[in-house]
Specification:
The protein is α/β, with parallel strands linked by helices. 38% of the residues lie in helices and 19% in strands. The strands form two sheets. Strands 1-2-4-3-5-6-9-10 form an eight-stranded mixed sheet, with helices on both faces.
């Protein structure tokens, strides 16, 4: 029996010479679920989802490289394929033959590529935005030349190298910045996410845990469709969730739905990009119904 008041335990594994972190919510005899967060986020952003699902699942939440309590990469590019390998290492480390993947944003892109490469390891896949490129980037990505892409990558890295980490005088100040990023968050949500998302500096200020080099756009794919063939190999049922207040494209209109063998898409009213924060009860309802089918 799972104690509803008990938090997760921290664990580490090694992937590509980096010390990677994940949290385990217990209930190890139950069917496994692996949660993968988005960019500039962390494993504890899933806490509300994990507390509910752990009643009848063994829930694991990964900190992607350069995020949360996982090590920062040596270098600056943070290619998605590196994160796909990290996910593969995690699933091997927890010694589960097959898992359910629930992912958000960048995590959805990571999860989708893993599910396409290793379809036998994934029983069901829930993607909360992230596989499709946001509308504001689509035209730019379609039209960019390889040379311009290289130029922009060099420019982005050099600008990031010159940017000092932002420091906040208190956790409350950092939480205020968190709410500026997502106006749907309650004060309680913003404070919780911030507490687990910052580290205290020597001078008493606070900075975000994520590596500034891990920002977009180096992590997002470029080119017209360089993962369509990979997606076509995903064999498990797929649930695509997006918020109506987000700029994520409709998966049917974008063609994403047609690339997947067995998928359906749902739009959640009154939610932005972080659908699982903005409309938690609805995301849990959709996810539980999908898992019970």
């Amino acid at each position: 029996m799972v104690n509803e008041q008990t938090g997760p335990t921290s664990h580490f594994f090694v992937s590509q010479r980096l010390r990677m972190h994940y949290v385990d919510w217990g209930n190890r005899e139950a069917p496994p679920i692996v949660l993968v967060h988005g960019g500039r986020d962390h494993a504890r952003s899933w806490d509300w989802v994990a507390r509910d699902l752990r009643r009848d699942h063994h829930v694991i939440a990964l900190d992607l490289r350069g995020h949360g309590d996982s090590a920062w990469a040596i270098g600056s590019l943070y290619h998605v394929i590196e994160m796909v390998i990290d996910l593969a290492q995690l699933i091997d480390a927890i010694d589960e033959e097959r898992v359910v993947l629930i992912c958000h944003s960048l995590g959805s892109l990571v999860g989708a590529q893993y599910a396409g490469a290793r379809p036998e390891r994934i029983s069901k896949f829930v993607a909360i935005e992230g596989i499709d490129v946001p509308k504001r980037f689509r035209r730019v990505i379609d039209e960019i030349s390889p040379r311009k892409q290289l130029f922009q990558t060099i420019d982005n890295v050099q600008r990031q190298a010159a940017r000092p980490p932002r420091r906040y005088p208190s956790i409350d100040a950092a939480a205020t910045r968190m709410r500026e990023e997502n106006a749907f968050l309650s004060d309680e949500q913003a404070h919780h996410l911030t507490e687990h998302g910052v580290a205290r500096n020597e001078d008493g200020t606070y900075s975000w845990k994520f590596d500034d080099y891990a920002r977009d756009p180096k992590m997002t794919r470029t080119g017209k469709d360089d993962i369509g063939e990979v997606l076509s190999h995903i064999e498990c049922p797929v649930l695509l969730i997006r918020g109506t207040e987000s700029d994520a494209p409709d998966p049917e209109e974008s063609g994403l739905l047609a690339k997947l063998q067995n998928a359906r898409a749902v739009a959640v009213e009154g939610a932005g990009h972080w659908v699982h924060h903005d409309q938690l009860d609805e995301v849990l309802r959709l996810t539980r119904n999908f898992l019970e089918e």
